[in-house]
């Protein structure tokens, strides 16, 4: 009977604790979300000082700072 009460108390306490995001830490996520020789970042949209160069996957763009882009001839 005491063990049942203990289990119920633990379950009630666990339901009150907010969920924590599990998974890799921020550094590991940043390394794996980089693209183009780690100079770019995979995002849904690029910032003002960034330019889209290649695709990371179907939904994300590889946003690269303009100073890291290769030189384009004829532009």
Automatic annotation (TrEMBL):
Keywords from UniProt, A to Z, are:
Antibiotic, Antimicrobial, Defensin, Disulfide bond, Secreted, Signal
Cell compartments where the protein resides: Secreted
GO CC terms of this entry: extracellular region
A Pfam family annotated for this chain is: Defensin_beta_2
- Main location per the UniProt record: secreted
* Domain Beta-defensin, residue spans: 34-63
Check the record and name the Gene3D superfamilies matching this protein: Antimicrobial Peptide, Beta-defensin 2, Chain A
Source taxon at top rank: Eukaryota
Residues of the signal peptide: 1-22
GO BP field: defense response to bacterium; innate immune response
Per the record, the similarity remark reads: Belongs to the beta-defensin family.
What does this protein do, in the record's words?
Answer: Has antibacterial activity.
Name the chain's protein: Beta-defensin
Give the originating organism: Nyctereutes procyonoides
């Amino acid at each position: 009977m005491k063990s049942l009460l203990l289990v119920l108390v633990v379950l009630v306490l666990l339901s009150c604790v907010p969920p924590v995001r599990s998974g890799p830490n921020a550094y590991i996520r940043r390394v794996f979300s980089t693209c183009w020789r780690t100079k770019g970042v995979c995002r849904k949209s690029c910032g003002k000082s960034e330019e889209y160069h290649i695709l990371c996957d179907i939904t994300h763009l590889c946003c690269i700072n303009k100073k890291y882009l290769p030189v384009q001839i004829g532009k």
